[in-house]
Amino acid sequence: MKRFLPDRFTQMLLGTVLLASLFPATGSFESFMHIASNVAISLLFFLHGARLSREAAMSGLKQPRLHILTLCCTFVLFPLLGLGFKALFPNLLTPQLWLGVLFVCTLSSTVQSSIAFTSIARGNVPAAICGATASNLLGIVVTPLLVTLLLHRHHEAGGISEVLNILLQLLLPFVLGNVLRRWIGEWVGRHRGLLAVVDRGGILLAVYAAFSAAVAQGVWHLFPPAQLALLVFVNACLLGTVMLITTFGARAMGMPRADEIVLVFCGSKKSLASGIPIASVLFSGSGVVLLPIMIFHQMQLMLCAVMARRYAEKLERQEAAAGSTSAAGDNAAAIAR
């Protein structure tokens, strides 16, 4: 039963949304929180850069087809499906929630959970490391460009300036952190627990600042409760469609089982850790835009946990059957002798 409950970080996110709804930051405190969240986000990406091992990032480049397919699922298939769903059911969600769903479709894959689930399923872990890392690196630039292209935000707030803001606030600290890895890499490696607190703290600050601004604009009065159920349904359709396409597509192309697992888990994931900071820059004060990625995050964890166990159990059964066959053959040979 526990596997169907929200993970601890999702619970913290929901608690932060509740806190912002009950006690939103206003006045000078709102300005302070906005500055603090921007600083925390820049620090978060600086530390991501400092942690990135170039050797690990390059280790899986021997399989370009697999990585190209994974990136196409992340940055091509998802946006096309999102646009298709919106075109078919334009009135199913409010405009802001559709904006959030399409934003989810533009995000990069996760890193930690993609690798973890690939490992649990006994897939190609080096390829997962390479693919997920490449997706996150590209996402810093590709996501805002896709948002500008797909959502036509250049008519609303100057899309090019938003991309530049992303580059300055996220990409520049990331590159700086990676350049300084030579000197601070060992320290970063020794303090992973502390850095995890910084990561999550930065995301929670960004969520609190975004929802505080949204609450001040009366967002919950504009958000019918029934929309939450419809949002869950749309996310489920989106995630389920991608997982079906990646699973059966990999088998149709004759991919090895280990590579199929990489395509399924890396190609179907969307990064909450990258999504919230990017959204705080692109959609300042629009807290409802964050709801789809928060819900999608929990749904992908639950579904992928079940699928990873099934992949592992299936392989274990095959190995057990092969072991039984081998043992029977050995016994027959012994009797014949």
From TrEMBL:
Residue runs in coiled coils: none
One Pfam family name from the record?
Answer: SBF_like
Q: Which InterPro entries match?
A: Na+/solute_symporter_sf, Put_Na-Bile_cotransptr
Tree of life domain: Bacteria
- Please tell me whether the keyword Transmembrane is annotated for this protein: yes
Recite the UniProt keywords alphabetically.
Membrane, Transmembrane, Transmembrane helix
What are the TM regions of this chain, as residue ranges?
A: 37-54, 66-85, 97-117, 129-151, 163-180, 201-223, 229-249, 261-283
Is Transmembrane one of the keywords UniProt gives this record?
A: yes
Annotated protein name in UniProt:
Bile acid:sodium symporter
Q: Where does this protein come from, organism-wise?
A: Herbaspirillum lusitanum
